Each structure stands twice: as structure tokens, then as C-alpha cells.
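Input record (one chain):
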Amino acid sequence: MLFLTNSSDIVVYVILLFSIVPILVLSMIVLIKIILKRAKAQPRKGSEANELIDIFGGNDNIVNVSKELTRVSIEVKSLEAVDMDKLKGLNVGTLIVGNTIKCSSEAIAKAFENYEK
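The corresponding structure, as predicted from the sequence alone:
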């Protein structure tokens, strides 16, 4: 053989080919999937938060917002001002107790993340 000087070189090349290369390829695939997942998880700022505020009757109707991980409790002045059809259209778990609307949604929690009255 012209390029390979002994049989130990062949063993090294085979080990490289069948062990290190697949590990590198799998690592790249995992890294790309993580990057894509994080990009999808980024909340859309601005317009989505404004739409949700409008669903709950606007800034004037919202009394208090409390957040716990993926759950949000929104206390409103009047339930009549809340657009119940749009709220149902969000397809999130919703519980109404008195004038407090509790939503189990990570998207809503992120939208109200920086909300201040």
C-alpha cells in the first residue's frame, strides 16, 4: 500500500470512522434541535400581550395580575368586559372564581411576564 505503512494505521482509521464521526454527527443534530426548540419557545412580545390585554377588557379592567410558573391569575373589575369567546378560543385551561380568571398557559404567563398596571 502506498499511503498506509502498517496495519495499526488501518485500525486507527477504522476506529475514527466508526466511533468519533457518528458521535460528532449526533452531537450536531442534538445541538441544532436544541437551538430550534429555544427559538420556538421565545415569546412574541408586544402584539400578543396587547391582544391578551384586550381579551381581558383592557388595562382599565385589569386590577391585578399574579404569576406562578405557567399559571396566571388575572383579577378584573368586571367580567362583562372580558371577551369570553376569544378567551375560549385560546384553548387554555381557564377557571373563573369571582372576578378572578385563572389560566394555565405558559404562553399567557410569558405574555404577562412584564405586565405592570
